[in-house]
Structure formats: structure tokens, C-alpha cells
Amino acid sequence: MRRVAGIDVGGTFTDLLLTEQDGAGVTVRLAKVPTSIANQAVGVVKAIEAAGVSPAELDLIIHGTTATTNAVLERKVAKVGLITTEGFRDVLELGRRTRPRAYGMTGTFEPLIERPFRREVAERMNAQGQVVTPLDEAAVKREAEALAAAGCEAIVVHFLHSYANPAHELRAGEIVRSVWPNDYVTLGHALLSEYREYERGTTASVNAAVQPILDRYVQRLQGDLSAKGFGRDLLVMNGNGGTVPATVVAREAAKTVMSGPASGVMAAAATLAQSGLTNAITYDMGGTSTDVALIHGGIPEVSAELTIDYGLPIHLPMVDVRTVGAGGGSIASVNAAGMLQVGPHSAGSEPGPICYGRGGTRPTITDANLVLGRLDPDRLTAVQAKVSLADIRAIFERDLAKPLGMSIEEAAAAVIRLGNVHMSGAIRMVSLSRGYDPRDFVLFAFGGAGPLHAVALARELGIPEVLVPARPGLTNALGCLVADLRQDRVNTVNKPLDQVDMDEVKRLMTAQREGALAVVAAEAAEIEETVVIHGADMQFRGQTHLIRVPMASPDVTREEIQAAFEAAYFHRFQVRLPEIRAVLVNLVTSVIGRRRAFPLASLLDASARAADVAGAVIGERQVHADGRWWPAKVYARDALQVGATITGPAIVQQIDATTVIEPGAVATVDAIGNLRVKA
Length: 679
What we know:
Helix content: 25-40%
Strand content: 25-35%
Radius of gyration: 26 Å
CATH topology of the largest domain: Nucleotidyltransferase, domain 5
Number of helices: 15
Largest sheet: 10 strands, mixed
């Protein structure tokens, strides 16, 4: 018996999918427990135990975590010092020509590294990698000792143009390590060998700021698991959709930012592959936020221009997920102007929505769904003390309906509609803004709350079909199970394409491939196939933003790169610029170690299926939609057989999510258990 657990820690719940495989086939166990905010490791262990096994019985754990993301967003990070080129200590604070608020010269920004801990030393490389000023080695040692004495837990060495020649950074790193009290030393070029000193510096500062936090968390988790007998492999999800061994994950801790959202996108890609689909917009609505991403041609879009918070760009390859502060726990209120507002504040898991009975007193999107009959008050997950529907309606009347001059139902419907507006905007960002028509995609809806809103969103955006996977509330945990091992390498060239040395291109890409292959090969026991993907980040001269262009191999010709870039640019902007020179900015190589395919049909419990659709009906209740109440049948998701068809209005319930089939929509169960809804 081989047991593998995928565990995802979200802002509200910690989800687990456990597979047990032997000669007879694959069986699945599920668990969903409240996230332990103070120490996520506690929730992870509780989820394993809730699945009815002990850690000692597990052969492999793949873990997606929000530890680093939350640390940066909440600014609960380690104290970091910086050693940089003389005259450039304020690069991290000056940034680009942006401001915290789009309108008006207001708002403040605090870099992750405070100014007193940003120290300068004499050294200078030019953009061609030639030494202009030699490195002052004595100054490096002196400043490192001063930063350690000042209480800095981690340190960054970030010199100008180190991507072109890292010699000074490498030597400074040796000196720093000789006096630094721990291993939390980040060299800017080692993490990101790209031009743009600001983005390279912020990426390095994020890495240093979360390195001790992630390292302590992983060690604590491994210790808790070991104490209960677990002695096998622990893999951690990276933001690029791949996994890395827990023993080395803290070295490049910044790569785990967006780990949780990326796992859901990887699960979507695996589900699409087994469903015969290639294009989807993924829509993950949880308790705290909503994440959307795009899968085109079966491959998730990856970007190296993520900005996690104002002034904190992280230029590492990551699944391009856009996040909005609209989740089931998003709080609805009437602002000072008398307008309804939904989010960005969330009730989270503590105290949570009113209906969870944990002390929440402010109306949320989840509570609005309950008021409108879209959720069953008797089947909510993790309710601590039951709160009556009458009490929830009274709060809606007091806080929203009366101030807005609406009925309770109208106020609740307005909360849902406004939340949908926020989410549809994020979907447009990942599709229309890149030249993709949403009508050419399916909406892949998951998360505990995603299926509640998906059909309404699809109608608003003109998306013809919604796909709700078999276990929507546990899809991120499934993503951990199906995620491949992945390594990405980036090197800056930053020259007009007609001046690029193509032999140097071949040398760099070959080195990228070999270095990434060596890391992936370390987990050879989990890999069935290795895939290498080459690409280039390009732009026309004078432009700022980059476009990723696929490349067939390191032996690609100059003419092939030019043609691929022009085609990609035209697809994105529908314009050709033959009079402007193309610039080859970065070379990119991704090596993906494909893990064993997960049989998604095993998520279904065949023994629970009813003989026909009527046998899956477990009740009927009134549901509010399109401005009126409708009688709607309620179906048990596990009882729906393959091929079953449902016409809305209807409600489909399961342990991890509820799906609303809007009036007039038609849903069908496909061969692997997905609910396919024609919106």
C-alpha cells in the first residue's frame, strides 16, 4: 500500500486529499479542517489525523502553504540587512514611477528593508560586466558584522549589474558567510540573474525576509510529523506550479509565494487533460480571496512579473494568478458615502462569517448566499455554534437593507452581485487584457465558494460553459498531488536581436537546462518523464513590458526568434511594428519532471450513485435568483451518475462545496465526474 497526501493550507481551511494505491486500485480519503493561523503545522497534522491515518503511514506528503505569502502581505517578516553598491542604498525605496494610490499624491510605502539597515560599500560593475571600481572587501566584512550586531536575522548582497558579472557578489557572499551567524544569506544574482536593479533587489529582499519564517515553519512541520512517526519525503509547492524538496525549499523561499493558488491551477490543468479540454480560465473562490488564472493549450500561463503588494515586484517565474479580495468571508458594509462595499476586509477563519457561529457579527458573501437560499444552513462545514437564519437576516436588515433602502433579499443579492463584479474584473485581466476572448474558454470553478457564483459569472462574461470538478473545495490539495517537479532558470542578455551572439545564446540555454536537470533528477523516484521548455522574454526597443516567446531548442536561429516574437506581439496587440528593432531581454528554460498521472475518476464513490437523477434528489427549497424566489431541487453530488442531466434552478451539494445551477442553465456529469454546466 502506497499512501500519498496532498495538503493545502488556505486562509480559512486546511484541505487534504489522501490516495491509497495497491494492486486492487486507488482509493481516496478526504479531510477539511479549520486552518490554525498561529501555527499552520498544527492544522496540517490535524488534517492527516482527520483522514483516519497517522503520519507514520504516509509515504509522501506534498504541501502547499500560504506561510510566505501571508508573511509579506502582513509584513510579519524577518529583520533584514542589505549590502549594496555605493550610492544605491535607496533603490528599493525609490522604485519605479508609480505611487501607492492611482489618483492623488497620497499613500506611503515602506520597503521590506529599513533604511538604517541598508549599507553601502565601494564597488561597481558596468552593464557589460566590466569592473569599474574594485570591491572593498574590508568594508563588506565591517558592514556585515554591524548588521549582525544590529539584530538582522537575514542579509542580502545586491550589487549593480551583478547579472552581467557576479564576481563581486560572489566574493562578498564569501566574506559575509564567514561572519554571519546563520545560513540566511541571499545573493541577488543567484536568485534572479536579470537586469533591472530594482526588481532584482526587491526579489532578493522578499527572499531574505521570508527565508527564516519558511525555514522555521518547515522545520516545525517536519518535527511535528517526525514525532508522530513520519520519516519519508516532504515536498513543498512552488509558485511556478512545481514542487521542491522541503530540505532545500528555504534557500529560494521567495519562490513559494503564491504556492497555494498555483496548486489549484495545476489541478485544473490535470483535470482538463483528462476531460479532453485545453483552454480554461480557472476561478478559485475561497474564504478570504479569489484567484484567477488562464490555461491555454493545456499549459498554465507563467509570468515573471508578479507584484505581491505595492512596491514589491517578485521577478521569478510563477503561475500567473491574479488575486482579488473577494472571498466567502469578504465583509459587506455601507461606506461613508452611503454606497454598498464588499471587501477588501475579510472575516477570515476567525471569527469568520456570521453563520459559522465563531463570533462573527458582520455580514459577508457567505451569509448573503445563506439568506438567498443558495446554502443549506444545516450542512455548513466547521460550524462552531449554530446561528439561526432569522438572526442573520436581522443583521442584514440592520447593517445593509435599512441604510440602503432595500429589502433583505435585495441587499443580499446586491452583495452577491458586487462580489461578482470584483471577480469578473479579475477574469477580464487574465483574458481580455492578453488578447484572449473569454468565449473561447471554459470557466473552471473551484474552491469552497467558486461553484456558488460560477454560472452567474459565466453569463456576465459570455463564457459558454462552466466546469466544476469532482472535489471543488479540495482542488488545491489535489493540485499538490498532481504537481510536477519544476525548475526555472533565467539569464539576461538585453541586446537588440540583430546584435546578439547566437553562440552565447546556445551556451546560456544549455547551461540552464543542465543546471535545472540536476535538481529535478534528485527526485528521480517520483518522475516518469522529463520535459524541457525553452523561451525568451522580448520587447521592442523603448518598451517596458516583456512578452514570453517559445523557443524550440538552444539551436534556434535569429530568424526563428524574430518570427516567433512578431507573431506573439501581433496576437497580443493586433499590430505590427516592423520599423522598430526587437530586443532579446532574457533567456528562460524550464525543466519539468512529470510525476505519475493521478486517476481523477478515483475521486468518485461509485457505491454512492443513485440509479437515476430522481434518486439523487435530497430535498427542495426556495432559492432567490434574478430578483425573485424559485423552487429548486437539491441534489447530492455523490449520488449523480455519469451522464445525469439537471436543469436549473437547482442546487448540487457535497461535503466540500455547493454548486448553484442558475435558472435556465443545464448541467451534465461527464465521464470523470466533472459537472459541466451550459450557462
